[in-house]
Amino acid sequence: MADENGKNGLDAVWRVVRHALGVEDGKGALRAVLEMVAIVAITFASTTAIAQPFYVPSGSMQPTLAIGDAFVAAKFPYGYSRYSVPFGLGPSSRDRLLQRMPQQGDVVVFRLPRDPSQTYIKRVIGLPGDHIQMVSGRLWINGKELALNADGQGKIESEDGTISESPRFIETLPNGKTHPIYKWTWTGQLDDTREFIVPVGHVFMMGDNRDNSLDSRVAPENGGVGFVPVENLVGRAEFVVGSYDFLNVHAVWSLVTEFRLSRFFNGVN
Fold first, then answer.
1. pLDDT at 204 (0 to 100)
2. 26-49 vs 2-21: helix axis angle to the nearest 10?
3. Which residue range(s) make up the domain with 173?
4. pTM as predicted
């Protein structure tokens, strides 16, 4: 009697599965299940090996990335570690599979060393062996002050949605790569720092919104990033796929007007 009840129970479950999948026979149900498994496997493989979408919740990378930007990061430029896999599965290792070091100026997604459950995005400023220091608001790398050229004014959005004007500059890294930054004070808490020497197997990260970025200039115990192990790199930001100013949605009619169409499909430089 128990075996018969068990068989009837399995039959009932199988009927529910076939109904949910919209198929009539066992072969059709099996085919539908295999298709779903294949879709999950392809999605897992693509987000692990090729690219993954991300979202910008803060303003530390303005003007390069705005609050509300959705962008795609390529997984393959630096090789693969456990953080290339969803949920950070896999063993810890200082070396990456097919490892390649990032270049100065790359905008990189990484897992926060003091809390790997958090994902950050910053710009690579220093590579292993580099000497990094802020002096009177200017960035120095390996004993040389970086060129900084005025580039007008820009609009900064705060985490509460308010918009303000800030001087904008173009900074040139030692490898010749240029990028924009916002800088409105030269006497802030992070404008004069000690000299940082980037350890082997690590990189030094900074935000482009220089006066509003808790990055490698700030020690982990003080809420900052510190040096980032190469293992923690997730991918290189490639392009913005969409942007929505959710902080300034104050009425039903503004649900549509807050799309930033001019930012759609822009490269991340």
1. 98
2. 60
3. 52-267
4. 0.80
